[in-house]
Amino acid sequence: MATEARMRAEPAKLSEAQDFLQDLTRFWTTQLDSLEKHLEEMNQEGGDER
How far apart are CA 48 and CA 27, in angstroms? Predict the structure, then answer.
């Protein structure tokens, strides 16, 4: 059974979780963009050896 205090705390936890997920998404998007750029550069330097 949820107490009144806990019910008031839930939106704060949700907001923290949303902020965390936004930061995580931003981090991995940056990492993937960087990796994609690196792979494109490697492909241009070495040509397509398939």
Answer: 30
